[in-house]
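Tutorial handout. Part one gives the primary structure; part two gives the three-dimensional structure as tokens.
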Amino acid sequence: MPVHKWAARRRRWLVALAVLAALLFLYAGRRQQQPQQQQQQQRPALAPDKEQPAAVRRRFRTLEQDPALSQWPADLSVDWQASSAQLAELDTIIQAARCGPRCQPASSADWRHRQQQVVRATQLAWAAYARDALGCDEYMPLSHRGRNFTHLGIGYLAADALDTLWLMGLRAEYAQARGFLAHQVTFDQRGAVSLFETTIRVLGGLLSAYHWSGESDTRLLVLADQLGARLARSFNTSTGIPPETAILRSDGIPFAGDCSTSESATLQLEFRYLAKLTGNLEYRRQADRVIDVMLAAPKFAGLVPTRISATTGLFTGRDISLGS
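Part two.
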């Protein structure tokens, strides 16, 4: 067969194969679209943006009519108390979460062994910290170094671990941490710290350790009062909503824009306890004012966004989540 005829036949074969491949591709695509179209037909159409709030409200009202939810009060006021049946149901859920259907409850001996392992792990961790970076705010075990969040440090890690060491019965480690805090930490220094983290870890750690001392270790209370007075300046905004950062050495009005809703609304435990111990009710008034502002701000079906403006006292953004 002449070469030119063979080349022409080969071109026809290639064209035929290309056409066949295109047809198979279109056929496969159509088969995939059919289930998607059926699913789209089954799904309810989303309402336009301007109608979406009304649609959500209708759905929320429907949920409110559910008999299973009728036992909850409409306003969820602070005076609400769970019923005996609700407490029993919660206890059942907790017990089921502790041990699923495929596991067997551990014996008392097993729990004691596990407890000893946790205490031993804590001893090892503290020994490494004390050897490499005692007093530093943060410990980096891989490099065997520590670092501070301010120039001098604020005893961040030592205060955070204080009550845990006491509860585990590690009296030597507790004395080491307490000694550093009592004799080497000062909050009268330049620097900015996280208001939330410093409140729950340093202030909370000092107050918790003071509580476990039988409220007798006055040095811990003095430190807590000194730190609390500096952190409480953050509440001196026009609305009372504090910024996320606290300035340790500052007497001016702090600047605050949008702040974390969850952080601002979870500072009350430490400041209320500090007010009780010191008799300085200003701590409680300032912390409670945050809640008053949030309760007065408009909400959507009882839900609030993750951010709030310290300037206006109104919630900002559209993000609503179960976390922070």
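Part three, for discussion. Confidence is low (pLDDT under 50) at residues 39-53, 59-79. The radius of gyration is 31 Å.
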